[in-house]
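User: Hey, my collaborator sent me this sequence without any context and asked if I could get a structure. I don't really work with proteins. Can you help?
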Amino acid sequence: MYGDQATVRKILTELGDTWAVVGLSANRARAAHGVADVLRRFGKRVVPVHPKAETVHGEPGYPSLEAIPFHVDVVDVFVNSHLAGPVADQAVAIDAQAVWFQLGVIDEAAYDRTRAAGLSMVMDRCPAIELPMLR
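Assistant: No problem. I've predicted the 3D structure and written it out in structure-token form, which is a compact way to encode the shape of the chain:
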């Protein structure tokens, strides 16, 4: 497992409430949509990042992390593992505080790079599972 429980807790409770969800579109059948619902119920602002830049849950979408015109605290990644590393690098570039790779999203080199850059990082876990367990 990548990211101990203390890191999970820190990301979910201390690092801020603006989450960019990379891979989130208006497609309600996708896992990202359900996770975004849970994040919102727990008080997080969820910013969709998807090439289509669709509005989701009333929040305007953006085609990339760099296009977001305000600070993002956490970057939650719902893309295939082979695409996740560049997203983590972009999260470092926009000065996010943490990166969260969803269940099944694994890139050990990106994990190491992101942590070396000073960001908190969790990989192969889901905040929608972890949040309810914190209470």
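In plain terms: The longest strand covers residues 18-22. You can pass these tokens on to your collaborator as they are.
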